C-alpha cells in the first residue's frame, strides 16, 4: 500500500515536512519513494528505489531542496518494476504538471497508446505516468487546474487517489 503526502506552508519547510510525513507512512510497506518540491528555480523532483533512507541520503548529497510546498510518495508497484524511473512523482511531457498516485488506472494502456499517437513519449512503465500527460493536455486548453483535473478523471477508469501540483500555481496543492 502506498502513501501520499502534500504540504503547503509559510516557511521553507516542505522537504522536511514531507520526508517526516513519508516516514510515518513507512509501516504501510513500499518499494521506492520520491518528492516534488516548489523551489525558487522551479519544481524539483527527486526519487529513489528502496527505503526512505536512500532518498534522504540522495537529498543530502545533492543538497536538500528548499521550498514552501510540495508532494511526496511511497510506492507499492503494480505496473512496472520497483526502480528510480518508475518511482513517483511523475511529470507531464511539458513539465507543467507533477503527480503522485495511489491505486491503479485500469485503462492506462489504451490512454497511453492514444497519447503516443498524439506525440507524447513516456519514461516509465507505470500506469501513473499517463495521468500528468492527460491533465497537462487539458490544462493547455483553458489553463484551469480544476477543469483540467476533472476532464482527465473522466477519461480514467480504476480506483485511485492523487496528489497534483502545477508549475504555474506554486501556492496550490490538488
Ligand atoms: N499503480 C501505480 C504504480 O505502479 C501506483 C502504485 C501505488 O499505489 O503505489 O506506480
Describe this structure in words.
The protein is α+β, with helices and mostly antiparallel strands. The protein contains 5 helices and 7 strands. It has helices spanning 14-25, 52-62, 108-117, 130-142, 145-155, and strands spanning 3-8, 32-39, 42-49, 69-75, 90-91, 97-105, 158-166. The strands form 2 sheets. It has a 4-stranded antiparallel beta sheet, covered by helices on one side. Strands 5-6-7 form a 3-stranded antiparallel beta sheet. Strand 2 and strand 3 form a beta hairpin. Helix 4 (130-142) crosses helix 5 (145-155). The longest helix has 13 residues, at 130-142. It is globular and about 40 Å long. The mean pLDDT is 96. Glutamic acid (GLU) binds next to strand 6.
Any chance you could write out the topology, listing elements then pairs?
Blueprint: E1 3-8, H1 14-25, E2 32-39, E3 42-49, H2 52-62, E4 69-75, E5 90-91, E6 97-105, H3 108-117, H4 130-142, H5 145-155, E7 158-166
Bound molecules: glutamic acid.
Glutamic acid binds next to strand 6.
Précis, in short:
The chain is an alpha+beta fold. It is built from five helices and seven strands; from the N terminus they run βαββαβββαααβ. Bound molecules: glutamic acid.
Outline the low-pLDDT stretches: none
Mind telling me the C-alpha Rg?
15 Å
* Percent of residues in helices: 25-40%
- The first-to-last residue Cα distance is 21 Å
Q: State the total count of DSSP E strands.
A: 7
Strand percent estimate: 25-35%
Succession of helices and strands: EHEEHEEEHHHE
The largest sheet is:
4 strands, antiparallel
Q: Name the bound molecules.
A: glutamic acid
Structural class computed from helices and strand pairing: alpha+beta
Total helices: the number is 5
Judging from the principal axes of the Cα atoms, what is the shape? globular
Biggest sheet, spatial arrangement of strands: 1-4-2-3
Average pLDDT across residues? Answer: 96
